[in-house]
Amino acid sequence: MGANGLTAAEVEQLKIDLRDAVSHSFESRFEPATKAGPGVLRVRFAITGIAKSSPGLNTVLAVLLVPLANGGAATEGEVLDSDSGERLVAVVASSNGSLLKGEFAGFFSEFGHAGQHFTRQADFLRDRVAQGRSRLDNGPQSPA
Prior knowledge:
The protein has about 140 residues and is of the alpha+beta class. It is about 40% helix and about 20% strand.
């Protein structure tokens, strides 16, 4: 166990989960590139915090009332122009699982809420980039 309470295997799996969430999100809107160049984006994310949920405890609590031992994650992400290195958009966010957000399944996996956070933040960053590109592709917008 490391200082953060996670095993090396858990850390590696979380990295894979984040990479998969970011890849899936961006590949749904943008063509993947193999090298830097004009019009190519560089996407970077870092996991800055993880909170495990307690699946066993949540199973008992779900029978009695509702699951309460949620997990979560904190991440930082940015998208850079791969040619110039200019930062186009960045996000720093943390979240914990919530029944109010419809994240019931995350209570029954130690890192379910972390995975949901990864997907949500990757989608958020992708959408900001897409909005910016749309404005550039359509030229300046005149006031209504």
